[in-house]
């Protein structure tokens, strides 16, 4: 992942934030919307794009656009920093390839314990029955 190329491909748009803000709410555009097109990105290889599109499938639009927004702070600059950090963290987590699971054999003691418990339960149920005369 080439972070400098990746950051240059990001597009930011300032929008009016929802919620309380007093007299400032209708004048200041402090909410920041980040958009990133995965298909046109030059920061990733083909394999990385495949992995990202698979892992971020629920967050991508139909034309492979990732849209993140932030209106946590009253400052537009601070919101831009927050959403950029969030984007980079999301991409880094999506690029992690999980380790292949090695199937392990069930230990003999575990099998014996399970069979013993079954036998014990069977004896308890047999003791509840009416005796054969």
From TrEMBL:
Q: Which GO terms describe its molecular function?
A: peptidyl-tRNA hydrolase activity
Q: Which keywords has UniProt assigned to this entry?
A: Hydrolase
Q: Name one Pfam family in it.
A: RF-1
> What InterPro entries does UniProt report for this protein, alphabetically?
Pep_chain_release_fac_I, Pep_chain_release_fac_I_sf
The EC number(s) attached to this protein equal 3.1.1.29
Positions of the Prokaryotic-type class I peptide chain release factors domain: 16-32
- Broad enzyme group: hydrolase
The family annotation for this protein states: Belongs to the prokaryotic/mitochondrial release factor family.
User: What NCBIfam families does this protein map onto?
Assistant: PRK09256.1
PANTHER family tied to this protein: PEPTIDYL-TRNA HYDROLASE ARFB
The protein's name is Alternative ribosome rescue aminoacyl-tRNA hydrolase ArfB
Q: Which gene encodes it?
A: arfB
């Amino acid at each position: 992942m080439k972070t400098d190329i990746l950051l240059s491909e990001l597009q930011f748009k300032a929008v009016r934030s929802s919620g309380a803000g007093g007299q400032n709410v209708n004048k200041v555009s402090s909410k920041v919307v980040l958009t990133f097109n995965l298909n046109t990105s030059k920061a990733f290889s083909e394999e990385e794009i495949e992995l990202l599109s698979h892992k971020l499938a629920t967050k991508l639009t139909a034309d492979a656009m990732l849209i993140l927004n932030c209106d946590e702070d009253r400052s537009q600059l601070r919101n831009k920093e927050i959403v950029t950090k969030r984007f980079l963290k999301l991409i880094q987590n999506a690029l992690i390839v999980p380790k292949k699971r090695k199937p392990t054999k069930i230990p003999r003691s575990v099998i014996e314990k399970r069979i013993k418990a079954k036998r014990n339960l069977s004896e308890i149920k047999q003791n509840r029955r009416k005796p054969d005369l």
